[in-house]
Every structure is written in C-alpha cells, then in structure tokens.
Amino acid sequence: MTERKISIGFPGAQKEITVEVPEGTPPPWDLKSAHTVVGTDVTRVDGAEKVTGRAKYTYDLNLPGMLHGRILRSPHPAAVVKKVDISAAARMPGVKAIVLAFDEGQIGTKRVRYAGDEILALAADTPAHAEEAIRAVKVEYETLPFVVDLDEAEREGAPQVYKDQPNVKPGRPRGNADEAAKRIAAAAVAVEATFRTQVQTHSPLETHGHVIMPDGEGLKVWASTQGVFSVRDGLAGNLGLKPEQVRVITEYMGGGFGAKFGPRAEGVLCAKLARKAGAPVKLMLDRKEEHLAAGNRPNSRQEVKAGADKDGKLVGIIVRTRGTGGVGGGAGCTIPAIYDFPEDGIYKEEADVHTNAGAAAAMRAPGHPQGIFALEQTMDMLAHELGLDPLEFRMRNDSDPIRREQYKIGAKRIGWASRRNKTPGAGTGHLRRGIGMASTLWYAAGGRQARADVEIHRDGTVVLMQGAQDIGTGFKTAIAAVVAEELGLKPSNISVKTGDTRLGYGPGSGGSTTTPTVAPAVREAAYAAKLKVFEAAAAFFKSKPEHLRAADGMIWVEDGSGAGAENRKSLSWKQACALLPADKVTGSADRRPNTEGFRNTTAGVQFAEVEVDIETGIVRVIKVVAVQDAGLTLNTLAAKSQIAGGVIQGVSFALFEDRIMDRARGLMVNPNFMDYKIAGPADCPEIEPVVFQVANGKNSVGAMGLGESPVIPTPAAIANAIFNATGARVFELPMTPDRVLAALQKKGGEKSA
Amino acid sequence: MRDHLLLYVNGQRHEVRGADAFLTLADFVRERLRLTGTKIVCAEGDCGACTVLVGRPRGRRLHYLPVDSCICFVYQMDGCHIVTVEGLTPGRRENDPLHPVQEAMVRHHGSQCGFCTPGIVMAMAGAFETDDGRHRPEPLDADALRRALSGNLCRCTGYVQIIEAGESIDPASVPPLAQLYPEQAMLADLAGAAAQPAAISAVRGGQTMELFAPRTLEEAVVFKASHPDAAVVCGATDLGVQHNKGLRVPSVVLDLSHVEGLSDVVAADGVLRMGAAATWTAIGDITEDLVPEFHRIITLFGSPQIRNAGTIGGNIVNGSPIADSLPFLFVTHAEVEIAGGAGRRRVALTRLYRGYKQLDLAPDELVAEVRVPLPRRGEILRLYKVSKRRDMDISTFTAAVLARLGDGGVIEWMRVAMGGVAPVVLRLARTEQWLEGRPFTEETMREAGHLAAQEISPITDVRGEARYRRRLAENILVKFYHDAQPAPAGAVR
Ligand SMILES: Cc1cc2nc3c(=O)[nH]c(=O)nc-3n(C[C@H](O)[C@H](O)[C@H](O)COP(=O)(O)OP(=O)(O)OC[C@H]3O[C@@H](n4cnc5c(N)ncnc54)[C@H](O)[C@@H]3O)c2cc1C
Ligand code: FES
Ligand code: FES
C-alpha cells in the first residue's frame, strides 16, 4: 500500500486528496492525468458490425431445428380463467409444446389482472403455425369489474385489482407536514399546482425475447437483456437448475432502457417450451405485447405547494404524489433534492395506485423526469411571483458547485440574457418563441461487484473478458479504451469479449452503473497484465518492471525526462510480448469498493428554446443545450450520444408519448408506433451536448454513469420555455397541441375576466 | 402468363414461385434469404428499420428508392432489383473498406444499440441516389437529411450524430448503385419477363391464394369482373398494415403496380391527371412548380419510404377521413375516372364518399385516374395538416381553403374542406355561402370560424379530442387570413 496525492473535482473547484494505492494497482486517474485514448473521440469497436447488418441480435438467430414460441394473453383487463382447452391447438400442424403460464390446479380460480396477462405459451415449427395454433386455444373467462384510470382507482368502491389489498398503497411519508405548511403559509410568496405525467413505454426497437436451447441438463440462452447474470439466476431459480447450468449470451441487443432485467415471464415460458420440446425455441414479443406487457414508466399526479421568502430563498415545499404502475408498483417520484430547501421545510408523501394495466418497470431515471417536471415548473412559478429571473432564482437556491458553473455555461450558449422574453408571452404573431431551463442530479458512481480478465498473448494480441452486456451505450468500447490507455495501444487493438455468463461477473446495465462499476476492475486487470509484460521486458532494458512505460505501441524506460519512445532504446508492443515466458499472461481484478472521492452524484442543467404556434397549439423544440457532468469521461463520442439520446427521449416524453387506455373497455388503444408516437429525426431539435468533466477520484478510473441523468430535466425545461413563449403554463404531459391550446385559452380567459 | 415472379436481390437472380410470392418482402429477405440485417420493428411502416432500396426499371435504368419492406409484398417486387444492407458492399471481405455511408456512421458514432442502424444506413444511402444514376452533385445538408430520414426511428441516439454522419459524406465518394450493380444484363432479363402478366396460385395454411398482376387496365378490369372479391393492391401501404395486423389477409390479389400507364402523372391545359398507381413521390416531383402548396403537403405525407410506395389511388379508395390528399381534391373540384365491367364513368370526388370508408364504387370497379383542375392565377390556396409529430404522423385534422378575392378585398368565393371532423371529408357549404361577398378581414374569418365549428361533427379519438378539433376549425380560418396576408404564400403565380 502506498499513499498518493491526487487532484480531483474540476478546474475552479479543484481539491487535493491523499489516497491509498494497494500494491499491484495503478494510482487513480485524476485532473492531472494526461490521456491519449480515454476522454477522446473513440469510435465503436463494434461499429462495422452494426452498420453492415452483420451484428446478430437474439431476434436474428436461427438455430437448426429451432421452434417458434408465441404467448396467448388475456384479452380482458380482469377475469377469472375458468377453462383452458388446448386439445385443438395441440393437434394443429407443427405444434411441439404447450405450457401454461400458471399451475394447472389454478384453472377455475386464476385471476388475470390486465389485458395482456400471460395465459400460456406454445412452440411450433414456423411462426405462422404458432400463430394459427394460438388462435385454436379456447379459454373461458369470467370477466370481472376493472379499473384502468388512476383517479378512478383511488375512489371508494372502485373495483379492486388485488382481491385482498386496497388499490392505494401509501409509501412512507418524509418530513413534517405541519412544519412545512407553517413555513409556506408564512412565506412572502407561495404557489400551488397539480401536475400530471403520463405512462410511457420503454419502446426499445428490439422487443423482449430469448432463444433458448436445452444443453444437457442445463440451458444455453441468447437473450435481449440488460443483465445476462440476472437472466441466468432467474431461469435457474425458476427451473430448479444451478446457475452454472445456465449460460446466457448477449452479444448485441436492441435497447432496454430499464425494462430488460431477469428472464421475466416470457423468458421462463420460453425455457419451459424448449425443455418440453427438447429443441431450441425462439420467443420474441411483438410490438403490441411490448407495449402491453413489457414494462413502462408509471404516470403521476403531483400536488405541490411551495414558498419562498422576500429575498428569493426557498422556505418550504409539500409534495403529494400518486401514480400507477398498473399491476406493479414503483410509481414514486423523485424527492425535491436539487435545491436548498431547509431540511424541515420539506414534506413529501407518495402512494402507488394499482390499476388493471401492465406492470411498470424501472425506466431511465425512474421517478425523476416526473418529479422534476413538477419541481422545476414550481421553481419557475415562484420566480415569476417574486418577479425574479428564473436563473437568478436558481442561483440563490442552488449551492451545488458543479451546477453553479453549468448554469453559466448553459445560459451563455442558449442566449439566456438576450433571447429570453423578459415578460412571458410578450411576442407577437402566431409563432412565439421562448426559453426555459431545468436541472438534474443523479447517483452514478457505480461500485457493485465486477471481475475483469485481460489476457496478453505472445503475439501481442490483447483479449479483454468481462461478462456484462453492452446494451448500446458503448460499454464494450469504453472498457476497450481503458485497456488501450493502460497498455499504450489503440482500442481497435483490443479484442473484447462481453455479454456471456461464462466470463467474469458484471452488473446489470441499470442505474447508470455498468461503466463506472466495471471500468476500474478492467483497468486494474490490464495493469496487472501489463506488469507481467514489463517483467518479461525488464531484462532487455536492464531495468526494473516498475520503471517501464507503455505508450503509443512502444515500451521504454521512463526516466522522468518526458521524452517519448523515439531516439531511445525501446521495444514495440509486439517485440515486448514476444519476450513473455508463456503463450499468454493474464491479469485479473475484482472491483474494489469506492473511496470517498469528490462525490457520489452527477449534476446537469438543460436550457430549451421552443416555438409555439398559438393557432394550432403545436410546439416545436428549437434547441436544447445540455450541460452534463459524467465524472471522467471515457469516450466523448459516446458521452455526446448518451446526452443527445436522453434529450430526445425527454422531448418525446414531453410532447408525444402516451399510453392511452380506453376506460370503458380497459384496453390500451395505441399499442403500436402509429399512434404511440416517439420522436423522429424531424422532431429533433438542435442539441448541444456539453460534456462537463469532473475527476471524482473514487476509484482507479473515476468515470460516472451517464445513461439516465440527461433524460430528466428536458420535459421541465420545455414546459418552462412554453410558459416563457406564451405566458401559459401546461401542467400535464404530454404537452400536446390540444393541451397547449387549452392552456392558452384559459390564460386568455383569465385576462379578460 | 407467367407462373413465377422474377426479381434480383443484391445482384442475385430469384424466380419466386408459390406461397413465397405472398410473403412480405421483409419476411422474404429475413426468413428465406437469411439476410437478417433488415429488421422488423413495427411491421406497419412507422420506423424504417426494414428499409431496403428497390430498383425499378425506368427507361434504360434501374431507379432505386427506399421502401419499408415490412409492408410490401414479394409480388410487388416482380421485375425489380432489391438491395438490402448486406448488398451495399458487394463482395466485401473482412478488412475491406465500408460503404461511405456506413463508414461515416461508424466515424460519427451513429449507432448505440444499432438495431435501427441498417434501416438508417439504407435510407441515407438511398438519399444519395440520383435520377440519372450519377453521383449526387451536392452533399446532403442537415435539413435534407432530416427529411430523408423522417421515416426512420431511433430510440437511442437522439439523431444528432446520425445527421452529422450524413453531412460529412462527400457525395463523390458514394458509388451509385448502378456502378455497384451493372444494370444492362439485369434490365434485359427483367424486361423479358415483364412483358407477360404474372399469375400465381398457391396453398398456404390450407387456404388457396391467387395473384394476378396484369399489364393493362383492360386485363385488370376483366379479372376484377370475374373476381369481385379480389383485393386491389397499388402500393400496399394501407393493405400491408392491415395484413400484418391480421385484419385483412386477402386470398385473391389484383396487383396494379405493373399496369402500363397507370402510374403516369401529366399536366396539360390546366388539368393535372394522375394515374391511380402514381406514387406520392412522382406526384410530389411534378407538383413542386405546378402547385407548390400541394407539393408542401405531400412532403409532410408519411415518409420517403411511404411516399415511394403509397399511391393516390390507394389514398382515395382507402377513404380515410384524414387522408391528406382529400381536402385539396375537394376544393379543386377533382374528379375520378372509374373503370368497371360496364365501362368507364367519372365522379366528382365530393360525391364518391357516402359514409365512413363507404364509397360509391362497385365490387367490379377500379379507380383508374384522378383529374384535378389546377388553381388559377389569382386564386389563393392553403392546405393544413395538424398532427402530433411533425412528420410521419397521421393527421388529427386537415383542411384546404381555396379562395378568389374580388375588387376591394371582397371574397368572390371561398371553398373550405376539412378532414378529421366527420366520418368523411367535408365541404363546408354553409360557411362558404356565408363568406361569399363579405370583406376579407380577420373579423370575417373569425366569424366564419365559429360557423365552421358548428358545421362539423368531430369525435374524440386517440389522435385528439373533439373540442380541440372544433377549436382548430375555428382557428384555421383565421390562420388562412394571416397566411394570405403580406405575401400570399399560397397564391398561384
Ligand atoms: C406509416 C404510414 C404513414 C402514412 N402517412 C399518411 C399520411 O401522412 N397521409 C395520408 O393520407 N395517408 C398516410 N398513410 C396511408 C397510406 O399511405 C395512403 O393512404 C396511401 O396513399 C395508400 O396508397 P397505397 O397505394 O399504398 O394503397 P393500398 O394499400 O395499395 O390500397 C389501399 C386501399 O385501396 C384499394 N385500392 C388501391 N388502389 C385501388 C384502385 N385503383 N381501385 C380500387 N381500389 C383500390 C385497396 O384495395 C385498399 O383497400 C400512411 C400509411 C402508413 C403505413
Ligand atoms: S418495421 Fe417499422 S417500418 Fe417496417
Ligand atoms: S441505436 Fe438503438 S434504436 Fe437507434
């Protein structure tokens, strides 16, 4: 163990700390580290596979003798399954296996709770045969009363989704309601409003699905998943196998956004079909099933009261939220943690409300876009009441050093001082422009379990092995960059194996943790392997391994002169590897816990400019400036892509997406992409991603997760921009043309009243 | 008669027989040819993940356009050369260079999960194709790229780096497909087959399927008379969606896409004549100078992939109250020519619709042509399409206003049509009558708006609420007043 001084934070808020560096591990990267690969534009290591169509997704696999699985789902939002008759289906051409989604003994009493609930699955030799057989299954249902609407489900006497449970399930309140109310009542200004957000489905382009092949006693599984290890453990648990009997592979997968963890019902059914048929089975959901039964972001109704004193300091906030995760839970919203509310001025209570709709699943920053939509509009409303510039108001109430810096950057880039309407809605003509802003924070330091192995072969080949899956974020490229940096090579020199439970353990891709969790173990494994090359090369240099240095594909003795490999005794990487005593050497490392470092959260701010057609209510987002901290960025190309991708999902959530339920029939009316709209290229504003680097020193790499934070503030920033453009505030998502027109009319009405 | 289809895929010749002819093109390339770069994501033309380039013989060339392979059928591809993402770099080996579009997508990090990428690559590659088979003269700018990609969805990237990739491409570096796939031998082979109509019957899932793809309208009419149940197919952008949803899987198909002259678009003597099988792309090309306002609405119609397949005949017969072409055709007094067993007849478009998707069209009749008297000099035309998303979205509300102003700013006449406000597209006769002879002022139009809102009977559905549609009906007439003001943008010059 040696002690090392490192500088962390960012220029302007730099901090020197002392860290302990265990033997055989590299000192943490910090503000002073000079990198040649990490933090530059690194193109994807799997780019060519993707653009040529050669990348094989689970959906593309075709094994010899493979069968095609299909699920029969309840057409009713609530019913008892009285009878299931599979005799005709079993006789249909090509049908090889049928499995029920529940125990046979439950027939007669089994309740289905939403339209889309699984009844059974079958496998046949072709997709068409499977489809035809599904239609031949006869199920008798006794339909029950149902409820699909949040407000209706809360009412006394509403149909109960779970027989022995009320629909409303309160969470633990936080803070002191009376104290907060007292403070708000005494405040110089106070505002009160109810905000609503809609149900959003994850809508990855590749649907959920698996190809599962019986493999001896065990299973070999290809999964479109965010967590190969969770699929392994889930399948093993459900089928009475040991985890090591199940191998799960995910080389490519087409998006998840939080909905693809574990095997879920469809994975378990697929595995059972494969075992029953004794053949590989492919079971991919279709687009409709994906909307109905594969997870979603719960909706919310948030009643907010808040106050500020005459100096523009926040004094208190009360937030009461309700949301429905359908038959699932998890409908809470973020706590108002961004701004400096006095601790005893905060009161928050929330409740999950069950409805007869598909279960929620974690979705990119669960709870946060919803909560921030309410919080940031509340901030703007208070600023308006105080007659303060909304940015100035935030500066008075946000002590976060990173965001304080980011506000300045963002304001300058959007033209806050010159382009914003000093009086909201002051423009003329039918197209009105306005600017708004909102902030974000996220927890993204990583740190769960992970193991990485790096092999260096005598021919110079480097193989990095890590079991976690790349869900598209560029994880594979990021860890290749880390190894390349450590070994002085290029990312394309590193052959990367990921997405396989036979490799070292890696976390599920969720909570913005994959890269920050895995990267330090990867770096330390590369470092350990490099030391072995240095040991082999030390004799050649007549030096000690710890005095060698690897960069630009060369190895030489570091003498402190700062000069590179040219004009001095050096070995190329290949020459050095040729000196290895064995065919290959391996460096391995387990993730060590984080140390204190700079901090656990990341910060960001976004500024949006919109144009509102006050005759049709159509909102166009013109520009979004997104300033985002991602710790130490490993790949700036990927970071920008994550930020822009978050922003566009935010735009899409703000303006278009909405799972619409027919209250009378209890069915989703838009389970497709024709009426469930997600933003396309033409809706895409000019997006200016600004990557704000912060060295956090919590581990040997110091990367922070970036997957979730950028999606959080966009809808709120757009809502605030609409207010600035029109003087009308929209309290409900999505901010569709009809809602915008209605808000405008209401505002007009107030004026003339 | 030919009992098979002839087509090429990535330069490979295929004779397709039997039930395969009835597959969607996407299933054919994925399942039969195992070309899995093409993805099926929505199966209804909304995401472009299934985009392929279809080369149709035109003169002595193959003319390549991107289409959504999930909603077209193999039989429509008779006589065509299809290029999938695997075919962009014929003969490429592991370390050979990529196609410039692919290379740019890698360099600019245009993929995250990559599931949309093949479709995006194909749509972008298609945008570099030109009518004359040479290199595109200028690079594509961001606007052109957004338009070219408006039929593609990506859930991950936010599009920014995809657009940047497109902007970075030097068009001189992009090999036209004519260069990658020498055309003459292929064209000669295809032309030989094309001379005869294709007729295929097959059995699928116990059901007999029959296809007839005539070369002349007469053949088509004769077939329709003997097979009144046959589903007529032009571009299949409506039918393909219905097919994939299991709503309409016809056993007899009459494919009009190969009928000689039925895709022609010509303008003469102030009349625009469009064959029923004319695609929106073809109509868009000719109207750019002729009726810029109609052209503008066409550019908002679906996406390039949809416009390259969808036709005016299909739009009219599909008969949706929010079909984008109808308000324009209503205010211009367009007529359709109908061909049937009993000969030909002409009907004013406004008379064609009897109720929701109910047409004055007998089972043995086909729509052959649409004739539009073009707006004259001095008439002001504005068309409106309101939808949630800017592109690639079915309308909530559509409207057309055509007006002639007399001396002193008096309204000589004004024709107003609205869609999405009743089971059929409406001409607002009462409002029109009221407007006649009144001064063209904001006041007048505001009042006319109130009248219009009373004349319609909108419903609430997934695309919008009734009260919103009423408000739009009111506002749109005021909007027309503003639009017609300083430089009458829609005026016919
Ligand atoms: C993603 C997507 C986006 C779309 N966007 C728009 C849009 O923005 N605006 C809009 O208006 N529409 C839109 N549509 C609908 C569709 O593209 C249009 O209606 C198109 O013009 C239909 O033409 P088609 O040739 O493809 O029709 P087809 O599917 O071939 O035919 C449609 C119907 O008409 C019948 N038919 C076709 N031709 C004839 C004929 N000559 N005689 C008798 N019957 C005939 C067919 O039997 C069928 O019932 C969209 C569709 C999709 C899938
Ligand atoms: S799969 Fe979406 S357009 Fe074809
Ligand atoms: S990269 Fe994932 S959908 Fe586009």
Unreliably modeled segments of chain B: 488-493
Count of strand segments of chain B: 20
Query: Biggest sheet of chain B, in brief?
Result: 5 strands, mixed
Low-confidence stretches of chain A: none
Separation of termini of chain B? 49 Å
Percent in strands of chain A: 25-35%
Helix-strand category of chain A: alpha+beta
Keywords summarizing the entry:
heterodimer; A: 753 residues; alpha+beta; Aldehyde Oxidoreductase, domain 4; 7-stranded mixed β-sheet; 6-stranded mixed β-sheet; 18 helices; 33 strands; 28% helix; globular; B: 493 residues; 5-stranded mixed β-sheet; 20 strands; disordered C terminus; binds flavin-adenine dinucleotide; binds FE2/S2 (inorganic) cluster
Protein model, in words:
The complex is a heterodimer of chains A (about 750) and B (about 500). Helix content of chain A is about 30%, strand content about 25%. Chain A is α+β, with helices and mostly antiparallel strands and about 750 residues long. Among the domains of chain A are: about 60-145 and about 205-295, Aldehyde Oxidoreductase, domain 4; about 360-445 and about 600-745, Aldehyde oxidase/xanthine dehydrogenase, molybdopterin binding domain (Aldehyde Oxidoreductase, domain 4, 2-Layer Sandwich), CATH 3.30.365.10. In chain A, the strands form 9 sheets. In chain A, strands 5-7-3-16-13-14-15 form a 7-stranded mixed β-sheet, with helices on both faces. In chain A, strands 9, 10, 11, 18, 19 and 20 form a 6-stranded mixed β-sheet that branches. In chain A, helix 9 (about 370-385) runs parallel beside helix 17 and helix 16 crosses helix 17 (about 715-725). The N and C termini of chain A lie far apart (about 75 Å). The model of chain A has no long low-confidence stretch (mean pLDDT about 95). In chain B, helix 16 (about 430-435) packs antiparallel against helix 17 (about 440-455) and helix 17 packs antiparallel against helix 18. At the A-B interface, helix 1, helix 16 and helix 18 of A face helix 2, helix 3, helix 4, helix 5 and helix 18 of B. The structure holds flavin-adenine dinucleotide and FE2/S2 (inorganic) cluster (2 copies). Flavin-adenine dinucleotide binds near residues 46, 309, 313, 318 and 324 of chain B.
